[in-house]
Amino acid sequence: MEHVILVDDNDNAIGTMEKMEAHRKGLLHRAFSVVLFNSKGEILIQKRAQSKYHSGGLWTNACCSHPLPNEPIAEATQRKLKQEMGIELQTTFAYKFFYYTQFEANLIEHECDHVFTGTFDGVPIINPNEVEDWKYISMEKLCEDVRANPDHYTYWFKLILDQPLHALKK
User: How far apart are CA 148 and CA 151, in angstroms?
Assistant: First the structure.
C-alpha cells in the first residue's frame, strides 16, 4: 500500500496517508512531474495506461508520481522514470506549483507538484502497466494540439505547459 506525504500550504511535511485515501479526501500532498526534452528541443510525452486510477488514456509529461515518505524527491523522480519509462537519468528541479481538481470516481488531486526537467535522446522502454504509448513532439505542435483537443491531456500537464518555456528548459 503506497503512502503519500501530506504537506501544508508552504510544502512542509505534516504527515503521511495512504495514496487513495488522500485522493478521496482531497488532502494536499507532495507530487512531482518530470518534463524531458531531446537535443532537438522536442518534448517527450506519454499516454497514461487506461488502467490508471485516474486520467487513464490521456497524454501527459514523461513521468509523474509521488515521492514515498522519507524519499528525497529527486531520487523519487529517478525511481519512477526507470519504473515507468525505462529511463535512467538525473533530473533537475525547475519549480513547483499547487493545484486542486476533481476527477471521476470522486477522486481529488490536491497537490504541491515539483517539476523536474532533463534531456533524453533515447527510446523509452515503457512499462505497459503505467504507459500505453509515447512520442517526441515539438512544443509548437503540442501546444496546437492541446488547444484543439484539451480533453486528450492531463489537467496538471496543461498547467505545466502554461508556464514560460524557459521555466522548463533550465
Answer: 9
Would you kindly state where each structural domain of the chain is located, as residue ranges?
3-164
Establish whether 63 is a catalytic residue.
no
Catalytic-residue membership of 111: yes
Annotated catalytic residue within 42, 63, 64, 112:
64
Q: Of 42, 109, 111, 112, which residue is the catalytic one?
A: 111
What gap in Å lies between CA 86 and CA 80, rounded to an integer?
9
Nine cell digits for residue 87: 529511463
Chain segment 3-27, per-residue pLDDT in tens: 999 999 999 999 999 999 999 999 9
Distance of CA 94 to the CA centre of its chain: 13
pTM: 0.92
The topology (CATH level 3) of 3-164 is Nucleoside Triphosphate Pyrophosphohydrolase (3.90.79)
Position 167 scores a pLDDT of 62
